[in-house]
Amino acid sequence: MHETEEKTLNSLVPLGLIHAFQSWFRGFQGQRVGDPRPCPKCGETTVWKNGYRTDRLFAILITEDGFDEITVEIQRYQCSECRHSYDGDIGELFYEDCEYAKPVVDLCLFHAAKNPFHACERILQNQYGLQVDRDTIQRYAELFGDEVAEQHSVTIAGCILSMNFLSLLFGVSTVDELKTEFADELAAEDIDGLVGVADETYPAKKGAKKDLYEENMRRKQEGENPKKWPEGFTVGCSYLTQLGCFAGLQCRNTAFARALALALVFPLLGVDYWLTDDNDCYNDILPDRVKCLVHKLRTRARSDERVSELHEAGELEELREYLEDEYETAYEEIVATLREEHPSFWDEDEEEFNGPVSTNAIEGGNWRLKYGLGVPYARCHAARARTSLLALRESMSTFTNGEPAESFAHRHGSFSFEQVLGESSTQPLPPRKEDHVTQAA
Ligand SMILES: [Zn+2]
Predict the structure, then answer these.
(1) Distance between Cα 52 and ligand 1 center (Å)
(2) Which helix (H) or strand (E) holds 307?
(3) What is the assigned CATH class of domain 159-292+358-415?
């Protein structure tokens, strides 16, 4: 665990802004929370108010005079039957298992999508004047990853193999359901076809690059072939290009396998066509899939004699032209077939095929997952937490390719951190309509 160092505000950030932000937090100071709920011991619903406690931490502010703790009061209750005394329901302001209040946790999760945990700590300090240490941020992120895996899972034979982002974002399990439930929204945005793309990436584990280097030094001395890749996690993702959102995600310690491929593409059921790399795991599952053009050409180029000749002769300019021609020919072939099978993706005016033909269509999604992590992780738990938050932020974007652009999931989906972390196990008493949280899927 990291010691909490004394923190100061950075004077380069206008202090007035930080103070305004902090004054919003101060508004909660001393507020009383805690709705009545049934006795957690015996379930009795007749309960009495029984004082309050004042020590529940809401947030810690970084001020010119050190840390300032914002606390709220919690209403206590006593059971009329067994006399047990307990806290009221604080689900309105707090998530279960998180010591800071919801707005602090949400901020941690928002920034942990694109930043390693220590960088989040710095952002909260500099931009908000909030004290949260990196271990706490990591714990919240892992809690989020666990809950998504638990609540929005694709399971095979009782094992959670993948996360279903369509369930997380829209409350539906497959593209088929999405097409039905969001028919009007899709039509309003002129989306009349959906293509599903699946691909894998392997972010290196912490220390794995150094291990690889040392291993290969040893192999070199003993005349063995070098090992190609550092040890990594297997991150598989499925993606809907037209919506710019993830459909499935998995981050695992094990190699990619057929059952994993099946779980990964399950949410894509109902797409107009599938596009994957040429990993054999997809062979039986998606016999009619379109293989990524780039992957296909890359594999073909490896055994192409002309490529080897040009490469050995150092004729790089000619090699480039040769490969471009190859690509052009293969592209026209694939588009001719796809255009016939999926005419809705053919743009008559532009004389162009709009559907993707390579897994590059993930729009760097995969790349962003791998490099978005920023730092290598030793534990899969942390890597999964970060990748799930990354995929969420990518899907819920409001700014893409250098300009403001609201994603389909942001505009029409139902996601909130509250929906994932806010499911309190305690039932409010008496049941009031506005307290019922609707849980998507
Ligand atoms: Zn009781």
Answers:
(1) 18
(2) helix 305-313
(3) alpha beta
pLDDT of residue 179 exceeding 50, the answer is yes
In angstroms, the CA 388 to CA 394 distance is 10
- Count how many Cα atoms sit within 13 Å of the Cα of residue 225 in the half-sphere of its side chain: 3
Residue keyed to tokens 């899972």: 153
How many A from CA of 92 to the centre of ligand 1?
Answer: 23
Return the pLDDT at 140.
98
Amino acid code (one letter) for 361:
A
Q: What is the distance in A from the centroid of ligand 1 to the CA of 428? A: 15
* φ and ψ at residue 4, rounded to 5 degrees: -85, 110
User: What is the 76 CA–ligand 1 centroid distance (Å)?
Assistant: 13
**Structural contact between residues 78 and 124, judged by C-beta atoms closer than 8 angstroms:** no
| Token pair for 316 | 């790089």
CA distance 171 to 181: 10
pLDDT at 401 > cutoff 90: no
* Alpha-carbon torsion (355, 200, 183, 179), positive or negative: positive
CA 270 to chain centroid: 22
Name the residue among 165, 155, 73 with its Cα closest to residue 365. Answer: 165
Say how many CA atoms lie within 13 Å of 285 toward its Cβ: 21
Whole-prediction pTM: 0.88
Task: Give residue 96 CA to ligand 1 midpoint distance, Å.
Answer: 21
Nearest in space to 256 (alpha carbons), one of 202, 196, 197, 293 = 202
pLDDT tens readout for residues 124-176: 999 999 999 999 999 999 999 999 999 999 998 889 999 999 999 999 999 99
**What's the 102 CA to ligand 1 centre distance in angstroms?**
29
With helix as H, strand as E and coil as C, how does 213-234 read? Answer: HHHHHHHHHCCCCCCCCCCECE
Residue 185 has φ and ψ, to the nearest 5°, of -65, -40
Residue 277 tokens, joined: 């790399």
| Cα separation values, 178 from 166, 365, 395, Å | 8, 21, 15
In whole angstroms, give the CA distance from residue 21 to residue 13.
12
Q: Does residue 374 carry a pLDDT above 90?
A: no
Is the pLDDT at 13 greater than 90, yes or no?
yes
Distance CA 249, CA 277 (A): 16
290 strand-pairing partners: 275
- Cβ neighbours for 185, distance < 8 A, ≥ 6 positions apart: 408, 411, 412
How confident is residue 249, by pLDDT bands cut at 50, 70 and 90? very high
Domain parsing of the chain, residue ranges: 15-147+422-435, 159-292+358-415
The alpha carbon of 78 and the centre of ligand 1 are apart by a number of angstroms equal to 8
